[in-house]
Amino acid sequence: MKTKVILQLVMLSFAIFLASCVKEGPAGLAGLDGADGQDGLDGQDGNVTCLACHSGNTISSRQFQYASSVHKAGTNVAYAGGRAGCAECHSSEGFIEYHANGSVDSDISMPSAINCETCHTIHTTFEYTDFALRSSTPVAMKIDAGTVIDLGDGSNLCINCHQARTAEPNTASPGETFRISSTHYGPHHGPQVNVFAGIGFAEIAGPVDYPVAGTSKHYQEASCTVCHMGDYVDKQGGHTFNPSLAACNECHSTTSFDYGGVQFDVEEKLVELRDLLVGLNVVAWSEADGAFEPNPGTYPMIQAQAYYNWIGLEEDRSLGVHNPQYVNALLTNTIEALKVVK
Ligand code: HEC
Ligand code: HEC
Ligand code: HEC
Ligand code: HEC
Ligand code: HEC
Ligand code: HEC
């Protein structure tokens, strides 16, 4: 587009240059003015209101908060943001293309971190309504397209990205054994909506009953935005996307996220489960990556499922808060099952 405009300008000046080379005599007198033309029709009223947004602190307050968000830091954009298979969640361009076309067709050469335009339709009609979310429709789960989740508010935007990508072993490939194919095997780093809704983990039988999906108090009364985007206070809430204590205290009084000691308990169980997996040689410490990783290989189904539950709940990173009962049932039952194996 820009190239074309420049090209036309060059041709025009070339024509003027040619014209100015032709020798001419002195100009004659100017003719009379012509009659006035007809008045044009009135145009439609313009709704373009840059100042509806570009004034006061509407934008700057969010920019200030967003400076503390991991989204803005975009740590993995260079690594994953350009790849067609990853871009829908890992770059702004990828997410926008995915929501316009339903897919990302090819790699993106200059991926950028998630920004205002990723989540909001800004600069479309140039009205305040452009702050509408790019998508807030219910989301079909990647691990089971038949499961569609509707959190009833802007949180539907979050769960396009914050969901598991790989189903638990016995759903993905039912059988006696399961092959853990790489050190990266697992649901992928952000299975938050699966934990929140209580779906998709390996429900190994044991002493604790699994709650019915979607019945937790948090699922029914809160949502991603309620806990993560409450009023901004001190690097929490608002557009930092960090959960805020102020939000918790809207419903129950607590001085830390470890309400009722749930996070402490979950952290202990995660360590116990990991150590059991290390004992079975499913997991080992990798000096190179500075992390506990699975040893690729074929394992009894229950052990592969136990690994999936451990890494998934580890990477959910709410330490039980997203769904206290479901997480407790998964960890308690998985630990009991592995103790029997040993
Ligand atoms: C819906 C609210 C909204 C409206 C209406 C709007 N803008 Fe913006 N504009 C934004 C946001 C949000 C950004 C991105 C700020 C950022 O990236 O941190 C932006 C960015 C810009 C930028 C880039 C510089 C900057 O501040 O980051 C320019 C230039 C701009 N807008 C011009 C305009 C003009 C001109 C209009 C009217 C024709 C307009 N905008 C209407 C919300 C709006
Ligand atoms: C469905 C969305 C989605 C897709 C597709 C996706 N990711 Fe992610 N990925 C996420 C989310 C969400 C996080 C951050 C979760 C968190 O911080 O809790 C993440 C985190 C990561 C991290 C950081 C892990 C860490 O320990 O900090 C890496 C690396 C990564 N992804 C690589 C990839 C690669 C490579 C691909 C493509 C093969 C990919 N992702 C595809 C959603 C996705
Ligand atoms: C990761 C997605 C995401 C990003 C990035 C993001 N926002 Fe938002 N924004 C939201 C969501 C979700 C809401 C609705 C929050 C709620 O429901 O409480 C929102 C609400 C808003 C609102 C209030 C809109 C209204 O209805 O009046 C403004 C203004 C806004 N964002 C501006 C910005 C600006 C400016 C940026 C960039 C600095 C930005 N947002 C970046 C997700 C995002
Ligand atoms: C376009 C995909 C996408 C959307 C939409 C999105 N996120 Fe994220 N989010 C990510 C990725 C990817 C990361 C990790 C950044 C990285 O590793 O580069 C992340 C990181 C985070 C983190 C920080 C995790 C940490 O490392 O501490 C929080 C909290 C978070 N997101 C919450 C939300 C909430 C709440 C919403 C909805 C309002 C949302 N996200 C919408 C992709 C997304
Ligand atoms: C009941 C409140 C609550 C709800 C609802 C909630 N979260 Fe969280 N979330 C938390 C808390 C608390 C943490 C752990 C923070 C900590 O311990 O530092 C957390 C952790 C996270 C993290 C890891 C980053 C971090 O700061 O540790 C991500 C990403 C995340 N939540 C995304 C989501 C998404 C997406 C949803 C909706 C599906 C959601 N959360 C719903 C409270 C909530
Ligand atoms: C919209 C209301 C609401 C919000 C917001 C909310 N919770 Fe809850 N939460 C509840 C209800 C209701 C229960 C079940 C009754 C109870 O245990 O108090 C509960 C239970 C819990 C439990 C289980 C307690 C136990 O001993 O089993 C934890 C942990 C928890 N919430 C942590 C948090 C944290 C941390 C936040 C803020 C990041 C938060 N909640 C935000 C309503 C909420």
Helical percentage: 40-55%
Alpha-beta content class: mainly alpha
User: Overall mean pLDDT score?
Assistant: 90
Q: Helical segment tally?
A: 17
General shape: elongated
How would you sum up this structure, described in words?
This protein has 342 residues and is mostly helical. The protein folds into two domains: 48-134, no CATH class; 162-341, no CATH class. 41% of the residues lie in helices and 7% in strands. The chain is built from 17 helices and six strands. Strands 1-2 form a two-stranded antiparallel ribbon. Strand 1 (139-141) and strand 2 (144-149) form a beta hairpin. Helix 16 (301-316) packs antiparallel against helix 17 (324-341). The longest helix is centred in the N-terminal third of the chain and has 20 residues, at 2-21. The N and C termini lie far apart (68 Å). The model is unreliable at 1-23 (pLDDT under 50). Residues 217-218, 221-222, 226-227, 243, 247-248, 250-252, 257, 259-260, 262, 321, 324 line the site of one heme C.
Topology of helices and strands:
Blueprint: H1 2-21, H2 50-53, H3 58-66, H4 70-73, H5 77-80, H6 87-90, H7 92-101, H8 116-119, E1 139-141, E2 144-149, H9 155-159, H10 169-172, E3 177-180, H11 192-197, H12 217-221, H13 224-228, H14 245-248, H15 262-279, E4 283-286, E5 291-294, E6 297-300, H16 301-316, H17 324-341
Antiparallel strand pairs: 1-2, 3-6, 4-5
The protein binds heme C (6 copies).
The site of one heme C has 18 residues, from α12, α13 and α14.
